[in-house]
């Protein structure tokens, strides 16, 4: 039986995958940051005997944390996806040569 030709890597998949990964990690980091900042605000309010300031936890802790993590994940995911694309393109060229 003849083997099927290897699929040529598709360059448009690089930014799509990188942005999808960035979006998911940003949402996850926002959720974790919001949970931890709400818990921290509640503990602080219990210790100081004041009302918890939950909008502060959202605006000044969780959102900046998610943006920071999103920026880092964007750079890392683009780097990894470009490296993966270049490797698969080189391997496909080697396989076509044989």
Summarize the model shown.
This protein is an all-alpha fold and 98 residues long. The protein has 2 helices and no strands.
What report would you give on this structure?
The chain contains two helices and no strands. The relative contact order is 0.18. 82% of the residues lie in helices and 0% in strands. The chain is rod-shaped. α1 (13-48) runs antiparallel to α2 (54-97). The model has no long low-confidence stretch (mean pLDDT 90). The chain is mainly α and 98 residues long.
Determine the structural class based on helices, strands and strand pairing: mainly alpha
Q: What is the tally of helical segments?
A: 2
Total strand segments = 0
Dominant shape: rod-shaped
Q: Low-confidence runs (pLDDT<50, min 5 residues)?
A: none
Task: Report the end-to-end length measured between terminal Cα atoms.
Answer: 17 Å
Query: In what range is the share of β-strand residues?
Result: under 5%
Q: Which SSEs are present, and which pair or pack?
A:
Layout: H1 13-48, H2 54-97
Helix pairs in contact: 1-2
């Amino acid at each position: 039986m003849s083997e099927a030709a290897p699929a040529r890597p598709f360059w448009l998949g690089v930014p799509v995958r990188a942005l999808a990964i960035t979006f998911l990690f940003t949402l996850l980091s926002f959720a974790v940051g919001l949970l931890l900042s709400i818990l921290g605000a509640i503990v602080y309010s219990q210790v100081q005997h004041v009302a918890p300031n939950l909008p502060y936890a959202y605006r000044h802790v969780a959102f900046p944390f998610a943006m920071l993590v999103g920026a880092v994940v964007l750079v890392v995911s683009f780097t990894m996806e470009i490296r993966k694309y270049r490797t698969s393109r080189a391997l496909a060229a080697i396989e076509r040569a044989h």
